[in-house]
Amino acid sequence: MSQLNLANNLAVHGYDVVAYFDNTPKVGDPVLSVEHGGAVYYFANADNKQRFEANPAQFVPAYGGWCAYAMSEGKQFDIDPRSFKIVNGRLHLFYDGVGGRTIDFWNESEVDRIKKAEAVWQNN
Q: What domain count does the chain have?
């Protein structure tokens, strides 16, 4: 499994990972970018960029930015950056497309899904 879900080293399809924590996903600006852990993150504003730089671990998405539900199934799927949930202070991203909204499947048994996804990720 790949550690990070990246296209051209870009994390979360260019969305601002800090904005998710304000419940307002936004596309970031390439001018406001930070490299962290092999990925480039874009930010919608300078404040969000500074918040990330102060504590990147708080904002980096769970499971390398792969779909959390798919990870709980032992798979890696790309995400729809508008499909997300903050769980226990961590950003979880989900696939939304053919086959349905995986966040809905996740919500049916979230505690179990977290345990499964964590086990898969740790053994990755």
A: 1
Q: Which amino acid does the sequence have at 106? A: W
* Structural domain includes residue 1: no
pLDDT tens by residue, 39-97: 999 999 999 999 999 999 999 999 999 999 999 999 999 999 999 999 999 999 999 98
- Asked if 43 contacts 33 with a C-beta cutoff of 8 angstroms, the reply is yes
On whether the CB atoms of residues 7 and 13 are closer than 8 A, the answer is yes
Question: Could you tell me the maximum CA-CA distance found in the chain, to the nearest angstrom?
Answer: 40
DSSP 3-state assignment of 61?
coil
Evaluate whether residue 14 is within a structural domain.
yes
- The answer, as to whether pTM is greater than 0.85, is yes
